[in-house]
Design goal:
With 227 residues, this protein is mostly beta strands. It is 4% helix and 50% strand. The strands form four sheets. Strands 2, 3, 4, 6, 9, 14, 16 and 17 form an eight-stranded mixed beta sheet that branches. The termini are far apart.
Length: 227
């Protein structure tokens, strides 16, 4: 039985987008009351699988917005706006940000919870109720120069982990950049069922539902370099 084995707390560790959910009481979350041999066999152990439809149980939703400004091309700093939606109802949640470069972390909004505040490189939530949502704003140094005036931006791995398994995560991922300075030349993974990619000059939108670990990598070239 899962119920009662773990405290009513959770820890979420976003490492360039990583979501690692820790111990959550089964009586407070939408996890099975028991785990059979068949259930265990179905648990995703980290392999990336895109899903065509959402499961019946609660699915954590993450919205990521990265804004590359003109100054970002020299400094590598971009603006991150991130929201965690449909949080499991628990007494306490710690969201820890482990970017190599992080500054100006603040809580932009919080709903359906008692409190949300920044402590160092983390956001501490308490009294999370059904429908809980928290949004943060920060600057992260994730834009890296890549030969001949190009740049690489890598986000992830995104994942939702519970005990030894990985569970569905819905991700709404968007990036904006100066269209007159940069051109997006590649997206990894490529567009496919369960991983919808839309691009236009200066912006990218990805909508995906998946299990396992997902890393998104974007390659940019200077505007005008394309043949």
């Amino acid at each position: 039985m899962l119920s009662g084995m773990y405290p009513r707390t959770a820890r979420i560790l976003p490492v360039m987008g990583l979501l690692l959910c820790g111990a959550v009481s089964a009586e407070d979350a939408d996890w099975p009351e028991s785990v059979t041999a068949v259930d265990t066999a179905r648990v995703n152990e980290g392999s990336l699988v895109f899903l065509a439809a959402a499961p019946e149980r609660r699915v954590l939703q993450t919205r990521n917005r990265l804004t590359i400004g003109a100054d970002s091309l020299a400094s590598g700093w971009v603006v991150l706006e991130q929201c965690q939606r449909n949080l499991d109802p628990v007494a306490a949640v710690e969201i820890v940000y482990r970017y190599h470069g992080l500054r100006g972390l603040r809580v932009a909004s919080a709903t359906a919870m008692d409190s949300a505040h920044v402590a160092g490189n983390s956001v501490q939530l308490s009294g999370v109720r059904p429908g809980g949502e928290v949004c943060i704003v920060a600057e992260v140094q994730v834009l890296k120069p890549e030969g001949a005036g190009g740049y690489r931006l890598q986000s992830g791995p995104f994942h939702r982990r519970f005990l030894d398994g990985y569970y569905p995560l819905a991700l709404d991922y968007r990036v904006e950049w100066p269209a007159g300075r940069l051109v997006l030349v590649s997206v990894v993974p490529a567009a496919q069922e369960g991983f919808a990619v839309q691009t236009q000059p200066g912006s990218l939108q990805i909508d995906t539902l998946f299990e396992g670990r997902l890393t998104i990598e974007l390659q940019f070239e200077p505007f005008g370099n394309q043949k």
